[in-house]
């Protein structure tokens, strides 16, 4: 089957190639209604589809953005991607998604591949280990928006949950229930700003309520090795914690597994409040109280900010904070 060309549409509509090109690029200011209808009819009759590569060479736009996430199967990432895709569809942009599995080398290769594909912009959840590569892309004029996690104070376009306020409100809720010995369960936050923001919200709430911070109730977790010490040992210590406040969905999931294996009941033996909602948590034997982020909204906001930057309609470097919600269920007892 012979490929339909722009000149074929022009001949069918009895107009110039320039007029067809203007129609395809939505430039109708000086086009009569009759001409527009003839071109539209010719495009449909011939089933003409513009060559995206040729079109991008003329417009310097591919109408495509790249998205790099750390775990495409994760609840947060999948919902954020859906938000990005929903917004881009409404704006007639295509989305290319790359998954890194938390690997900085894979992230670097993904950045290079997307650059070679001539994307118009990039949305990324960074590992924090390719800052120079991302800055290099920005320096070349590629609009970039980061989301989900912030590693440093460098100026950048970024969309985040309001981690500090959310952790503050969650800690205050626990204090109002009578909990004074709260085990804060977290990944290392020494070099990740967004994790430190959660910790700071926790500390702020303790200070406001005159409760001293107890370093022994900070429990660290790593994705590769799990908990630094067993949660059971925290419960067996003198002046033991009465509630776990976990800072990541994966932490909450692993903690629930260990408590269940040790026959430790929630909330009878220990209360639990998690950061990030658990899929279908309302169907648990004991539904878990959580700080709920809105990753779909964050994805929509990231895509909106990126397309505004692509179109030159946004000032440089915006830091947008999306509120979280405390969803109270049945996993936290009064003391």
CATH class of the largest domain: Alpha Beta
- What gap, in angstroms, lies between the N and C termini? 76 Å
β-strand percent reads: 15-25%
Strand order of the largest sheet: 8-7-6-9-10-11-13
Low confidence ranges: none
Number of helices: 12
Helix content: 40-55%
Q: Can you tell me the CATH topology of the largest domain?
A: Rossmann fold
CATH architecture of the largest domain: 3-Layer(aba) Sandwich
- Number of β-strand runs: 13
The name of the CATH superfamily of the largest domain reads Response regulator
Mean pLDDT over the residues = 89
Shape: elongated
Main β-sheet, in a few words? Answer: 7 strands, mixed
Number of domains: 3
Task: Describe what you observe in this structure.
This protein is of the alpha/beta class and 335 residues long. The protein folds into three domains: 6-50, Orthogonal Bundle (434 Repressor (Amino-terminal Domain)), CATH 1.10.260.40; 60-161 and 295-321, Response regulator (Rossmann fold, 3-Layer(aba) Sandwich), CATH 3.40.50; 163-292, Rossmann fold, CATH 3.40.50.2300. The protein is built from twelve helices and 13 strands. The chain has helices at 6-13, 17-24, 33-46, 52-59, 75-90, 104-116, 131-139, 163-176, 193-208, 231-236, 249-261, 295-310; strands at residues 64-69, 94-99, 121-124, 144-147, 158-161, 182-186, 218-222, 226-227, 243-246, 271-275, 289-292, 319-322, 325-327. It is elongated.
């Amino acid at each position: 089957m012979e490929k339909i060309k722009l000149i074929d549409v022009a001949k069918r509509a009895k107009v110039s190639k320039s007029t067809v090109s203007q129609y395809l690029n939505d430039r109708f200011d000086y086009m009569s209604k009759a001409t527009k209808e003839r071109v539209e009819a010719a495009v449909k009759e011939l089933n003409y589809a513009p060559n995206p590569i040729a079109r991008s060479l003329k417009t310097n736009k591919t109408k495509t953005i790249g998205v790099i996430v750390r775990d495409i199967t994760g609840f947060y990432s999948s919902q954020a991607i859906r938000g990005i895709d929903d917004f881009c569809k409404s704006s007639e942009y295509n989305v290319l998604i790359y998954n890194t599995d938390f690997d900085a080398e894979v992230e670097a290769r993904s950045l290079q591949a997307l650059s070679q594909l001539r994307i118009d912009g990039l949305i990324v959840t960074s590992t924090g280990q390719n800052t120079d590569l991302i800055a290099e892309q920005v320096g070349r004029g590629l609009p970039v928006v980061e989301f989900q996690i912030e590693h440093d104070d460098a100026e950048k376009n970024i969309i985040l949950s309001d981690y500090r306020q959310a952790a503050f409100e969650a800690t205050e809720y626990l204090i109002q229930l009578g909990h004074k010995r709260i085990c804060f369960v977290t990944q290392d936050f020494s070099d990740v700003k967004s994790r430190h923001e959660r910790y700071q919200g926790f500390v702020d709430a303790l200070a406001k309520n005159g409760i001293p911070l107890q370093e022994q109730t900070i429990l660290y977790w790593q994705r590769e090795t799990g908990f630094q010490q067993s949660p059971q040992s925290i419960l067996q210590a003198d002046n033991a914690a009465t509630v776990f406040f976990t800072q990541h969905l994966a932490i909450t999931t692993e903690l629930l597994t260990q408590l269940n294996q040790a026959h430790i009941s929630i909330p009878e033996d220990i209360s639990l409040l998690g950061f990030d909602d658990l899929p279908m948590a309302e169907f648990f034997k004991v539904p878990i109280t959580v700080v709920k982020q809105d990753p779909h909204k964050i994805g929509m906001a990231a895509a909106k900010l990126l397309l505004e930057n692509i179109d030159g309609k946004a000032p440089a470097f915006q830091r947008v904070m999306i509120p979280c919600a405390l969803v109270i269920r049945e996993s936290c007892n009064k003391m």
